[in-house]
Amino acid sequence: MQHKVQIIVLGSGSPDLENALRYFQHKYPNQIGVKIGYDEALSHQIIAGGDLILVPSRFEPCGLTQLYG
């Protein structure tokens, strides 16, 4: 990646998507972090330190993650 950007991905999805994310994490280890699954403490750190949050959830009953962000 040519731009100074860091991306953190937390969550799970289709195996194809998870594998693609792992590939990019391996290719750009200083810019992309991937945690497949969910970690409550890590989610708080990501929200607190992030400049942008993207929540591509298929089901989000009340949008709390967006509210926290």
Automatic annotation (TrEMBL):
It is an enzyme of class 2 (transferase). Gene3D superfamilies: Glycogen Phosphorylase B (3.40.50.2000). Keywords: Glycosyltransferase, Transferase. SUPFAM superfamilies: UDP-Glycosyltransferase/glycogen phosphorylase. Coiled coil: none annotated. GO terms for biological process: glycogen biosynthetic process. One of its GO terms (molecular function) is alpha-1,4-glucan glucosyltransferase (ADP-glucose donor) activity. Its EC number is 2.4.1.21. GO terms for cellular component: cytosol. PANTHER family: ALPHA AMYLASE DOMAIN-CONTAINING PROTEIN, GRANULE-BOUND STARCH SYNTHASE 1, CHLOROPLASTIC/AMYLOPLASTIC. This is Glycogen synthase.
